[in-house]
Fold:
Amino acid sequence: MNPGGVGFANGGSLVKEVVYDRETILTRVGELAREIEGVYSAEDRLLLVGVLKGAFIFLSDLARALRIPAQIDFISVSSYGDGQVSSGRVRIEQHPRMPVEGRNVLLVEDIVDSGITLDQVVSLLLEWGAATVETCALLHKRIASPDHEPRFVGFDAPNVFLVGYGLDHAEDFRHLPYIASL
Structure:
């Protein structure tokens, strides 16, 4: 499906193909919420920690789809810069503001490709004293085997550079209501 020439006035790249449309994404987010509810209850005091900036839209939709209470916080990390390939170095730019010590944490990630970011953030959350840490990734490329494999996965994604629904390239394309390839 061609998204009809979505581009930017600054001469940014056009997206090539819609990989997951908005309806498909929202249906799967609802299914993920039901899967999460099968593991956690209100008594678990679940803390959703979204990885900024890519997971913010996914986290928002997921939190609204959950029928159990959950608190929300964010962690900001950087590993891409302006490129399309991870640098392999993860830099923490913002720590969660809420204490994670003793909490059941669900790390909400936009995409897992190399698994480096996921592994390092899970390790940090455990180091900071989280009682449990599970992960929920909207997309998983399955090109690597992270030490901390996501428990909940929205879609097995193709090994192409994806944008939209929070995912970006050099801060562009996050606003798209679907996920597309560049």
